[in-house]
């Protein structure tokens, strides 16, 4: 009997465009690959695994402006480091099962089901065992990652490893919240299998042992298994496949560098939509960026150097700004667009002051219009973004080694080894102050490991990278810190900034109402919402 049945519209055929495999583009165009081919042949198994990568790219970096984008942006900005100006409002009246996007829940379980289908069917496929194990390992990383995602987001979740088929789709259904022990047993089992069967060195856009260990270490932290977490993070750091890169390269145009544990691949020529191999245009490079070109049209036009087409929906807040040593910490100018108007030059051809600093924006934009002018995020800057659009085809680094170092620091502190905890923390910090990943300069080192020092350094390095919300939740600090520092400015001005209160119930995200109704409102889900 299946525990989950028809929580999503099951698609039995997989589009060739979802394979992320360029070889198929050279074949005759076909609409679908048969299910029998995918689940009974070696080549089909590879097609199925490739399709999972495209589905995961849609899950974590969808194109365009839609609820799927909002599902990802929420976790990046709705923390103690964020400022909301417009668009979807975190913790507002729409934060409930009826209105909040259900993208993560619905898409997550859909992909999990396909992972289970691949894992199950592989047992009966005759092929080279090592090649089979590597394909299955990739499916198991994805399944383990998704279950950890869902657990972090929703609290009480369902687990199921039996793939949906035409034969079992009408079986009786039991909707029951899984125990923490069962959830983590499944997550860790999947990831341990992947660790045993994947190499560290893989092609860009593929899951390797590094990302499998990184996620496994995160699972251990949620279980307060400090030794297990430290062992996973040490294995990544000590292997040498991954390493910190120069600060200027971390968020440069090449996202497939040594620091990347995993990067989503995009290619306009193989797209341009989510259901094709190249993916669609991703808007992240516009969401967090101010529109300097609205300050004074006689002085400024859209310029890719200043972010190009921008949206200015969300920004880093003044609390985050206060955490930086703005004189010495190079991350302040590397990870963010400057808030010194003299750094922006008049770029309108024919203007007699062309190349000179723009007019003081306090004059050009009375009352501090945030959309046109605000300290803003540069991490997702794309020097090749399509002009006059928000579409970016830059590859998207999703997991990186700097987070591994910081999480390892936390694990070692909880093991009572602050010497190693500080060594890992300061490894990242030194790079931030010198730009050099191998710097031995101790001038700005932290000399004591405290929770505040750790959280502040994590904020300086990893702000708006899809980890802060989950870190604070795991530490039990999400509601407290969000209510202290997260701000909204519906008017887009400093004088219009207000608090958006988060309630304790909101630490577990609202399961979409359609799914609650389907399940018959079983106990254990959406505490505080219904």
UniProtKB/TrEMBL annotation:
<comment type="similarity">
    <text>Belongs to the SusD family.</text>
</comment>
<feature type="domain" description="RagB/SusD">
    <location>
        <begin position="301"/>
        <end position="520"/>
    </location>
</feature>
<dbReference type="Pfam" id="PF07980">
    <property type="entry name" value="SusD_RagB"/>
</dbReference>
<keyword id="KW-0998">Cell outer membrane</keyword>
<keyword id="KW-0732">Signal</keyword>
<keyword id="KW-0472">Membrane</keyword>
<protein>
    <recommendedName>
        <fullName>RagB/SusD domain-containing protein</fullName>
    </recommendedName>
</protein>
<dbReference type="InterPro" id="IPR012944">
    <property type="entry name" value="SusD_RagB_dom"/>
</dbReference>
<dbReference type="InterPro" id="IPR011990">
    <property type="entry name" value="TPR-like_helical_dom_sf"/>
</dbReference>
